[in-house]
Write a structure and sequence with these properties.
Elements (H helix, E strand, L loop, with lengths): L3 H12 L7 H5 L6 H16 L3 H24 L5 H15 L1 H4 L7 H19 L18 H14 L8 H20 L2 H21 L4 H25 L9 H16 L2
């Protein structure tokens, strides 16, 4: 009897069979599947954040399907197969955990983390084919959400000494960048305003990193909080028999502050 993993691989191969497979599956390639990989990864995160463990099991299966799909396409092209994908990650896990699979002993979590990062750096050096790829910043995926990419880039630079040693100068830098946004706004150059806003966001991510805050998660939570409060305003306005556009800003602002108080108590 086939294991479920073997059955999944067989199903994917059947879907990609040129003679009688699925027309949609047959049309896909690495690039066309990119949106689905990203979407499935986010749906896994959503299930975790909702603490829906049954849905998590299902969403992990959807994400696994994307791995199997890519592996099947690669196998058809003679590049690699699912077994080699699994082999690569097994090798990587063993290599990066010498304290588990070898005799290495780390005295602290800091030593263990430093060794993990060094192992990753060594791997990047081994596969570097150009000067750009050899950079300490190589390997950070440009397709990551902007805040995550920014944080990872800054972490890499910090590990090589390019960082403030304390948090206080970062606060000063945030204020400096905010002043530059204001100046760009006064000049009215939209392109320059965008550049300065980008610089401000970058420094705010740096501040979050220095405060041991994940900027992506912090913004996600603030966005959810904004949405909860805004929905409260909508409900109050609807109860009053009005629409949002009929309300003065001062009225909406008062409801916003009311929402902060009411929702905090729930």
């Amino acid at each position: 009897m086939l294991t479920h993993t073997q059955a999944l691989l067989a199903l994917m191969a059947r879907l990609r069979q040129p003679e009688n497979g699925c027309p949609w599956d047959l049309k896909q390639d690495f690039n066309s599947l990119i949106p689905y990989v990203i979407e499935e990864a986010y749906e896994v995160v959503d299930a975790i954040e909702r603490n829906d463990l049954d849905d998590l099991c299902s969403e992990l299966g959807d994400l696994l399907l994307q791995v199997v799909f890519h592996a099947q396409i690669a196998e058809e092209r003679g590049l690699f197969n699912f077994e080699q994908v699994a082999e690569r990650i097994c090798e990587k896990l063993i290599r990066r955990h010498p304290h588990v699979f070898a005799d290495t002993v780390f005295a602290t979590d800091g030593e263990r983390h430093a060794a993990w990062e060094q192992a990753k750096a060594d791997e990047r050096q081994e596969k570097a084919k150009t000067v750009e790829q050899a950079s300490v910043l190589a390997g950070v995926a440009s397709s990551l959400p902007a805040l995550m990419e920014c944080e990872k880039i800054q972490e890499r630079a910090a590990r090589h000494g390019f960082d403030w040693p304390q948090v206080e100068p970062v606060f000063d830098k945030v204020q400096e960048e905010l002043d530059e946004v204001k100046e760009a706004w006064r000049l009215g150059d939209q392109r320059h305003i965008q550049e300065e806003v980008g610089d401000l966001l970058l420094v705010v991510v740096n501040l979050a990193r220095h405060l041991n805050i994940n900027a992506e998660l912090a913004l996600k939570e603030s966005t959810r909080k904004f949405s909860r409060r805004f929905r409260y305003i909508e409900q109050q306005v609807e109860t009053a028999g009005k629409s949002l556009t009929e309300c003065e800003l001062v009225e909406l602002d008062a409801l916003w502050h009311e929402a902060k108080m009411v929702l905090k108590q729930q």
